[in-house]
């Protein structure tokens, strides 16, 4: 049974109590924000990732880019927070956080292509390797966005914990 004040109403089912999720005010006041941004433990839903993760970090990054002293430290903090949020999204779809490293797979081939291109005066082999690596990297990004960032998380508990409280199915 859903308790009163637990949140917003989703699809009404005739003859059943409405399912509720936390209101934004409750969410903002009750959430452990340090753990949300800095701990890779647990799971986060799509809405929280895009609203409180991606958009907030984008705005913070844009703001920090205009401050010279913080501009040196800010990107490291933003990178860490982005990585922990991506790890939690992987956990929500029952994948290991190590899947975030899949983007490094084409890197050795790209480096070989760069070296081959620079040492031989820009031969077709080096340029071809770079183009192939760029296409593979693009395909990996598309896969990651669809399979992890856009896909709904597991409805029930998985090996990384219970489903996020704020996510509705």
Helices, by number, come to: 6
Question: Whole-number average pLDDT?
Answer: 76
Strands, count: 2
Can you write the helix and strand succession as a string?
A: EEHHHHHH
Task: Explain this structure.
With 169 residues, the chain is mostly helical. Helix content is 56%, strand content 2%. It contains six helices and two strands; from the N terminus they run ββαααααα. α3 packs antiparallel against α4 and α5 packs antiparallel against α6. The two termini are 16 Å apart. 14% of the residues are buried.
Brief overview:
The chain is mainly α and 169 residues long.
Task: Give descriptors for this structure.
169 residues, 2 strands, 6 helices, single chain, 56% helix, two-stranded antiparallel ribbon, mainly alpha
Question: Secondary structure elements and their pairing?
Answer:
Layout (H helix, E strand, L loop, with lengths): L7 E2 L10 E2 L2 H7 L2 H6 L7 H19 L5 H23 L14 H13 L4 H27 L19
């Amino acid at each position: 049974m859903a308790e009163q004040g637990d949140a917003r109403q989703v699809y009404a089912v005739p003859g059943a109590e409405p399912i509720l999720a936390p209101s934004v005010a409750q969410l903002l006041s009750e959430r452990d924000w340090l753990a949300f941004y800095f701990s890779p433990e647990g799971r986060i839903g799509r809405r929280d990732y895009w609203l409180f993760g991606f958009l907030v970090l984008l705005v913070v990054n844009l703001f920090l880019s205009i401050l010279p002293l913080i501009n040196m430290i800010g990107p490291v903090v933003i990178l860490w927070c982005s990585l922990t949020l991506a790890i939690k999204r992987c956990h929500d779809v029952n994948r290991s956080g190590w899947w975030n490293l899949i983007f490094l797979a084409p890197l050795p081939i790209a480096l070989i292509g760069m070296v081959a291109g620079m040492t031989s005066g820009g031969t077709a082999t080096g340029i071809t390797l770079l183009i192939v690596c760029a296409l593979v990297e693009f395909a990996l990004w598309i896969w990651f966005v669809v399979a992890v960032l856009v896909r709904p998380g597991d409805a029930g508990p998985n090996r990384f914990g219970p489903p996020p409280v704020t996510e509705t199915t």
